[in-house]
Predict the structure of Permease.
Amino acid sequence: MLLLAGVVLQDPLRGALSAPVMQSWMTVFVAVMVQALPFLVLGVLLSAVIAVFVPPSFFARALPRKPALAVPVAGMAGAVLPGCECASVPVAGALVRRGVTPAAALAFLLSAPAINPIVLTATAVAFPGEPRMVLARFVASLLVACAMGWLWQRLGRTDWLRPPDRPSSEGLGKGAAFWGSVRHDVMHAGGFLVVGAMVAATLKAVVPADWLGHAAGNPVVSVLVLAVLAVLLSICSEADAFVAGSLTQFSLTARLAFLVVGPMIDLKLFAMQTATFGRGFALRFAPATFTLAVLVSSLVGAVLL
């Protein structure tokens, strides 16, 4: 029926798609997708390799026994372990199951999607000529991850955290678990990437420039607008830099807030954290993470950008 409708209405559709606003929309949409897809696919493959072939016990042995020291070590581990936020939640759950202190597992949960090599490389490509953005994203994300880990160590309670009962790939062979992880992450993260690219294209092509100009012209409002937008869009961290790079009317600091907040807390992450660690944990962890991410990204942006 859709094909038949397309054939019958081909002349009006052709006229609508040839309009300048639609040409602009499609140009931005295709540009974001073409730039982001290779990084998304590579990140998903590497994430599946780590999740399936690297035993969680490896991380427990590699971390210091003292929680205060384990937090920054776990946070820095995210810099060498590629993976998007969709993969970091189950990995963090596996770490808690294997006896890793929750503070360190949460630091890894926040840092891994934000400062791994794939994400930083994508950020460099999305912001050509702005190497400061890569450094600012790394510093701000690592600071937030460590601060949240130490905050949990200081104020967190055991009854707020409900450790997961079993790994999601239980009973599957390594090959089946690997391809299952790849299929899930590609479909899940790819769908959010499409939505993010569509919203970015709409902002560029449809929303009046003076509206965005008013928001972008106020330093405080622009940071809050893009931080909230990052939560609502729920874009995969391997692709969010290209969406942020297209929002050129906003300052680098506001776009840094978008890049720091998104991989740490958004709608899909809130749902995944609730399913993995419990509602009581998510209701406390998400608002604290959002607030701290906005504050730290604003401060780092003021200093480095």
Q: What stands out?
A: The two ends are 52 Å apart (CA to CA). The chain has one domain: 22-164+187-304. Residues 22-164+187-304 form one domain. Residues 252 and 305 are 7 Å apart (CA to CA).
